[in-house]
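In the design runs reported in the main text, the only information available to the sequence generator was the tokenized backbone. The following block is the verbatim input for one such run; it is reproduced so that readers can re-run the procedure and compare outputs position by position.
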């Protein structure tokens, strides 16, 4: 799907459930820049889409990874081998991209591909406040937006006022996954302060335009506030150390999410533990 004269969005699946997807974004400048790559095996969808735009996959010159999770990095290795492109990421997430968890390199079930095609060298480290020149007047501004992971980044294409958020914006109705809610709230407020966002381009939510962009960010802040209130009330109501797995199942019901798949339970438990261990979150959410 073409978003602007230079930006295309490719919705790629994360299994058989059509509601589980991740967007790969393509920016056509001097060469093609990919924002994330989907899971292992997505490279065929990406290559076919590029050909449908009368270009060749060999034109991929850069892959910018918003963070190290496998649904964003999974096909990076294969695409780099195909095109010889440069891989870029934040320094804090680069080690996990270069040396992924061995469990990600094994098929999760018979007949399935591993989630990640392999480790890939990060040739360019992206510091907060830096820029990447894509040619044709296209400049990406780099924004450190930690919280989902320590090295999560968002990207702002100034010419087209397009904001790529990765997983920084936690969409209501989707599994909340973050390691540092204090950092995440600050990251969201940083994104909300960007003037004149014309295109909101998230990973696991639908793209939006204009005022709706800011509404999505505000909804994410409200989602985190809701989760924090639930966790704090649950802990206050029960004696002793909370059973975080049981609390995760209760949180899923509270948020109206589908029953937790086994591979998601650990993510929600970590989100709850991050909330429990957060210092200053109450005060921050009241500001």
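Verbatim output:
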């Amino acid at each position: 799907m073409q978003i602007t004269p230079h930006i295309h969005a490719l919705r790629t699946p994360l299994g058989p459930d059509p509601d589980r997807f991740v967007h790969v974004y393509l920016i056509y400048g001097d060469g093609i820049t990919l924002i994330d790559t989907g899971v292992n095996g997505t490279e065929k969808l990406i290559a076919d889409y590029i050909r449908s735009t009368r270009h060749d996959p060999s034109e991929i010159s850069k892959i910018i990874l918003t963070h190290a999770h496998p649904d964003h990095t999974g096909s990076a290795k294969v695409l780099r081998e195909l095109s010889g492109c440069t891989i870029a990421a934040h320094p804090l997430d680069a080690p996990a991209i270069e040396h992924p968890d061995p469990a990600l390199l094994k098929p999760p079930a018979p007949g399935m591909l591993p989630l990640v095609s392999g480790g890939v060298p990060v040739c360019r480290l992206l510091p907060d406040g830096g820029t990447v020149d894509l040619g044709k007047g296209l400049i990406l501004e780099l924004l450190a937006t930690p919280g989902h992971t320590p090295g999560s980044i968002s990207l702002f294409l100034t010419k087209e006022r397009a904001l790529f958020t990765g997983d920084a914006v936690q969409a209501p109705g989707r599994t909340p996954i973050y390691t540092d809610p204090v950092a995440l709230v600050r990251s969201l407020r940083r994104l909300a302060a960007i003037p004149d966002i014309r295109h909101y381009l998230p990973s696991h939510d639908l793209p939006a335009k204009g005022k709706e962009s800011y509404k999505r960010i505000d909804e994410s802040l409200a989602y985190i506030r809701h989760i924090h209130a639930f966790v704090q009330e649950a802990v206050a109501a029960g004696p002793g150390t909370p059973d975080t797995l049981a609390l995760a199942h209760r949180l899923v019901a509270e948020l109206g999410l589908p029953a937790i798949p086994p591979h998601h339970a650990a993510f929600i438990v970590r989100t709850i533990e991050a909330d429990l261990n957060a210092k200053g979150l109450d005060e921050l959410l009241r500001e």
